[in-house]
Each structure stands twice: as structure tokens, then as C-alpha cells.
TrEMBL record:
It comes from Python bivittatus. Residues 161-194 are annotated as: Disordered. The gene is LOC103057622. This is Acyltransferase. The chain crosses the membrane at residues 21-41. It comes from the Eukaryota.
């Protein structure tokens, strides 16, 4: 295999962009494990008091991810994220006005690997979320598992991330709207989903998304009377190549068993390196356009029937398809390519 190395003379701006993405990839894949290792290691050194004091703080602060988290403006506005945005680059596209006095659930499609578009658009201000949607505050819902790692949990909350339980508690503490809070939710609050279903596979002039049976977010919206907003991120799945894992393969079997144990899917992926373009875990430099659609108004009902959930889910998928069709030609998607849900 011939390795294609990066040129020696690269503008400082591009090197800073690569460095910003490198720290993000490291944070996504390794930071939680490193934080746990540091916490345990310090207990057996003369600096044990650091871990001991943090353990007390952790116990007192345990419920914070369930109560809206703890955002830091300086973290969300960091120049690091602007360099990361320019690496791809990433653009946030607004198509409709959103009332800042209401809550919304954003369904982000496709999920992709590491979800660069969702992170930059909704956990930072690099693409100008607050300017595009004044009065709204974005929160990204994550599995509770990630908030069980010491130190790492504080890093997650600083960007506005919170648990699914936290989102529910925020709604329950308000009457219809909490000063314009916007909650960007993965379209599967029950879990991480299928490792293939979270990716987009282009075949037979169709764009396949496994969203047909993921309806938990719809039930959530009905129970709280929260409007649903479809979001399609063009280019999200062009950042990495995934190792094939067809049904019946040993890799698919391993992923499914790990998902049952850990609650998350672990796809194997690769892309480019830091100093070469042939292999590695750095994403490709490919543009991402995250298009926020029009809100779908939802009537509140405490215990919706399955028929009501199915009806709203069908409407949501229709609006998602409409959003895709209206914008695909702008973002280099062939005209004969359409969304198909499996």
C-alpha cells in the first residue's frame, strides 16, 4: 500500500485546524478512559487528596447532569472549535424561525461516526447557533454512561451536554417552555441504536436510514407537547470509512454483544492520519451542511397510544424526506437519490 504523505509546507492555519480536530478525536475516543485512569492512579500517590476531594465533590454534584448540566460560555466560544469548524468546514443552515418561548426536540440525521456536525453546531458557538436562533439554548442529549467518568463528566457538561433524564426533568419543571430552551436530541432516546443504522449507505440511487422503528423520541415529544424539528446533516457520513460488518459476520456479532453490555455500538472505522492521507482515525476534510428544518407542532398527551405515536412518526419522516429533497441539489447529492427508511 502506497502511503500519501502530507506536504511539508502547510499554512499554519491548516495545522491549527488539524490540531483542533485531533484533540476532539482524542476526547471522543480516549479522554474518558484517561480520566478514569488518572483518578485511580492519584489515589495511590502522594496526590491522593485530589481524587479524594473530587470524589466528595462528585457525590454532591451527582445529579447535575440530570438537572440541565453546567455550561461554560468560554468553553463553547473557544477558538479551538472555530478551527475545527474550518477544518471540514461545517455550516449551520436555518430554514425557519423558532419561537424562543418554546421547547424543541431536534432529530439529527444521519448520526454518523463521532457526530462532528452535531457537536460543532449544538455544543459550540463556532457556527453561530445563538445568532441564528436568538433566545434559544442548545443541549445535546447523551447516554448516562458517559457521565459516570470522573473529570470527563465536567468536560461534557461544559459544552451543554446532559443526560436524557436531565432533559425530561427540565421539561417537567416548566409549563410548556423554559425560557426558550432547545434540546437537540438523538432520534433514539432509548439507546445508541444499530451500528449500521446510524450510518448512511449509498446504494441503488437511494439514501438508506435506519429510523423506521426508532420512535422513542416521538413518544417523548407527545408526552411533553414539544415540537419536533427534523435536521439533516449533508456530508456527515463522508468523514470516515467503516469496516464492513454484514449480518452474520463475527464483527457484527461482537458489536451486538458489546452493545448489550455497554449500551453503545462500537463501529470500526478509519480515514486519514495526521501527517499522511492514507490511513488513521482523523476524519477527511469534507464539507458538512447541517440543515435545520421547520418545526412540527405536537399536541400534548400524557399517555399516547401506539397509533398516535406511529402517526406522528410517519409525519416526521415525511418532513425529513421533504427537507432532504429540497436541499440535496445544493449540497452535491445526485437528483435521482432519495431517502429510504429500513
Amino acid at each position: 500500500m502506497k502511503v500519501e504523505f502530507a506536504p511539508r509546507r502547510i499554512p499554519l492555519q491548516r495545522r491549527l485546524q488539524t490540531a483542533s480536530v485531533l484533540q476532539w478525536v482524542f476526547s471522543s475516543l480516549c479522554l474518558a478512559q484517561c480520566c478514569i485512569a488518572i483518578f485511580v492512579f492519584l489515589l495511590f500517590t502522594r496526590f491522593w487528596l485530589i481524587s479524594a476531594v473530587y470524589a466528595v465533590w462528585w457525590a454532591l454534584d451527582w445529579d447535575t447532569p440530570n438537572k440541565g448540566g453546567r455550561r461554560f460560555r468560554c468553553v463553547r466560544n473557544s477558538i479551538v472549535w472555530r478551527y475545527m469548524k474550518d477544518y471540514f468546514p461545517i455550516t449551520l443552515v436555518k430554514t425557519a424561525e423558532l419561537d424562543p418561548a418554546k421547547n424543541y426536540i431536534f432529530g439529527f440525521h444521519p448520526h454518523g461516526i463521532l457526530v462532528a456536525g452535531a457537536f460543532v453546531n449544538f455544543c459550540t458557538e463556532a457556527t453561530g447557533f445563538s445568532k441564528l436562533f436568538p433566545g434559544l439554548t442548545s443541549h445535546m442529549m447523551m447516554l448516562n454512561l458517559w457521565f459516570r467518568a470522573p473529570f470527563f463528566r465536567d468536560y461534557l457538561m461544559s459544552g451543554g451536554k446532559q443526560t436524557q433524564k436531565g432533559s425530561l426533568m427540565n421539561w417537567e419543571s416548566s409549563e410548556g417552555g423554559r425560557d426558550g430552551d432547545l434540546l437537540k436530541a438523538s432520534p433514539n432516546p432509548e439507546g445508541a441504536g444499530d451500528p449500521l443504522g446510524r450510518l448512511t449507505n449509498v446504494a441503488l440511487a437511494k439514501w438508506f436510514l435506519l429510523e423506521k422503528n426508532l420512535k422513542g423520541f416521538v413518544r417523548l415529544a407527545i408526552e411533553h407537547g414539544t415540537a419536533l424539528v427534523p435536521v439533516f446533516s449533508f456530508g456527515e457520513n463522508e468523514l470516515f470509512d467503516q469496516v464492513e460488518n454484514p449480518k452474520g459476520s463475527w464483527l457484527r456479532w461482537t458489536q451486538q454483544h458489546l452493545q448489550k453490555i455497554m449500551g453503545i455500538s462500537l463501529p470500526l472505522f478509519h480515514a486519514r492520519g495526521i501527517f499522511q492521507y492514507t490511513f488513521g482515525f482523523m476524519p477527511y476534510r469534507r464539507p458538512i451542511y447541517t440543515v435545520v428544518g421547520k418545526p412540527i407542532q405536537v399536541k400534548k398527551k400524557h399517555n399516547p397510544s401506539q397509533e398516535e405515536v406511529d402517526l406522528l412518526h410517519s409525519r416526521y419522516l415525511e418532513e425529513l424526506c421533504k427537507l432532504f429533497e429540497e436541499h440535496k441539489l445544493k449540497y452535491n447529492v445526485p437528483e435521482d437519490m432519495h431517502l429510504t427508511f429500513i
